[in-house]
Specification:
The complex is a heterodimer of chains A (244) and B (247). Helix content of chain A is 37%, strand content 24%. Chain A contains nine helices and nine strands. Chain B has one domain. The longest helix of chain B has 31 residues. Classes of the chains: A alpha/beta (244), B mainly alpha (247). Chains A and B meet through helix 2 and helix 3 of A and helix 1 and helix 5 of B.
């Protein structure tokens, strides 16, 4: 299968901390890749280095065969991004933000349809700042998808959403995946990861401590439930410390 | 171009919703013009002057909007958009974060031009003001003032580490320039010591230029202001580009 995202030996340090330590990722077209780990494990830094909004210290990144630093404009016609924090202008309305975002691309979807899919139709005349956390989150997923991308990066996909809305988002993403969309996401919800991801990587202190499928992760752990397995992976070291 | 237009339209609407620029760049200069007109009417600028006080002040009042936009509006909006990571979001789209900055410059330029039109109309309609110098020279000088003031704003907004610093710097630049450069208080009414101090401000030089152009005074007295403004614009724009921080 064709590779959509290829990351080799990615490393990034902040003054004293190694935020990302020699990470290798390969995501095929139409796959959903989940990057997991506790807060501060290096997920966002990894995403930012892949996107080129942060410069890595070492390693190489290619998305759709392009270098995000040197082919930025061409690449982001085909790649959508939702950052962890919502960034928008004061007093801007939902429809205005969609309109502006749409205007940045050569081709785009009808945002009214997208807003409807994500249950935001009646909000298009509201100010973004007046939306609830979950509504904002959905709006920024809409903005990431507005250009009808081939690859989408979703940092903390459903944080702040209620169960119903999360299910709706999953279903919508599963449909897009079936149509060939490649998804790179981070999440703190293991049910979501189980439902969506073909491939996962668990980060701890910037290092990959597991890379494979959800099933493999469970099989290699002493647990039967993925969430338990995940906690087992991320806690391992502390347990070793405790036993000492 | 589609992106520029859409963004311009939206950002301009947002700016109008904010009201501050409407007040500081449009209403305030018109008010100052009206007050000067009422106080001084058609009195000559000084005994034996060939032009009125109002004629002498027109160029100065016309810069109030440039000052408000250039050293208050621009630096604040730039540091705000960087702080809110809006510039970063633009980085992961096919356009560049520079687009949103270009849009802001265009918006503040528009405010300045609209303000100039209103100030001129107010002076012409109510106080029968006429531009006795060259309109073309005046516009040239006006754009030079705009260029140098906006370049200061871009520099401050581009390198201030956070919105608080930007706001402090903007106030330090804005208020003295607004008050002492002659934009609001007539330069001619100030004691000569204050005039000398005010002379170091680029806006003072710009206003001298505008005065000369609007009154049709000889060009030799304006060489220094032209040089000062141009050098300043080049230095500030260069530094802003060189040291600009997107995040």
């Amino acid at each position: 299968m064709e590779t959509a995202i290829k990351v080799n030996q990615l490393s990034k340090s902040y003054t004293t901390v190694k935020a990302v330590d020699n990470i290798d990722i390969s995501v095929c077209r139409g796959e959903v890749f989940g990057l997991l780990g506790a807060n501060g494990a290096g997920k966002s830094t990894t995403i930012e280095c892949i996107l080129g909004t942060k410069k890595q210290d070492g390693g190489s990144v290619s998305i759709l065969g392009m270098n995000p630093q040197t082919n930025r404009k061409k690449l982001f016609e085909r790649v959508g991004v939702q950052f962890q924090e919502a960034n928008y202008q004061d007093k801007i309305m939902v429809a205005e933000l969609c309109e502006v975002t749409r205007s940045l691309y050569k081709t785009s979807l009808n945002y009214a349809d997208l807003l409807k899919q994500f249950g935001l139709s009646d909000k298009s005349k509201s100010q973004v700042s007046e939306l609830s956390g979950g509504q904002k989150q959905r709006l920024f997923i809409v903005l990431a998808l507005i250009s009808n991308p081939e690859v989408v990066f979703l940092d903390e996909l459903t944080t702040g959403l209620d169960s119903r809305a999360r299910r709706d988002v999953w279903k919508y993403l599963a449909d897009l995946k079936a149509k060939g969309l490649t998804i790179f996401l981070t999440s703190h919800f293991m049910d979501e990861v189980e439902a969506l991801c073909d491939q996962i990587m668990i980060l701890k202190n910037g290092k990959s401590i597991f890379h494979g499928t959800v099933r493999e992760a469970v099989a290699a752990s002493p647990y039967e439930k993925f969430e338990d397995a995940y906690l087992w992976y991320t806690d391992e070291e502390e347990k070793e410390h405790e036993s000492i | 171009m589609k992106a520029f237009n859409t963004l311009f339209k939206t950002e301009f609407k947002l700016s109008l919703r904010g009201m501050d620029m409407f007040i500081f760049a449009i209403c305030m200069p018109v008010m100052v013009m009206v007050i000067l007109g009422i106080i001084y009417g058609s009195k000559p600028a000084f005994d034996g002057a060939g032009y009125t006080f109002l004629e002498q002040s027109f160029g100065a009042v016309a810069t109030i909007a440039i000052c408000a936009g250039g050293v208050m509006g621009l630096p604040l909006v730039i540091s705000d958009y960087r702080h809110k990571k809006i510039l970063k979001r633009f980085k992961v789209t096919p356009t560049s974060p520079a687009l949103i900055l270009a849009v802001q410059v265009a918006i503040y330029a528009l405010y300045s031009i609209v303000s100039l039109v209103f100030v001129y109309a107010t002076a012409a309609v109510f106080f029968s003001y006429q531009l006795s110098g060259s309109g073309l020279q005046f516009l040239g000088a006006y754009f030079l003032v705009m260029l140098s003031m906006f370049s200061i704003g871009l520099l401050v907004g581009g390198i201030a580490p956070n919105i608080k610093t930007a706001s402090v710097l903007a106030s330090i630049l804005y208020f003295p320039m607004l008050i002492f450069s002659g934009a609001t208080l007539p330069y001619e009414a100030m004691p000569s010591a204050l005039q000398k101090a005010a002379d170091i401000m680029p806006l003072t030089q710009g206003i001298k230029l505008l005065k000369a152009a609007s009154l049709g005074l000889p060009i030799n007295s304006v060489l220094l202001p032209i040089v000062v403004m141009t050098v300043l614009a080049v230095i500030c724009t260069g530094a802003a580009i060189r040291f600009f921080r997107w995040e």
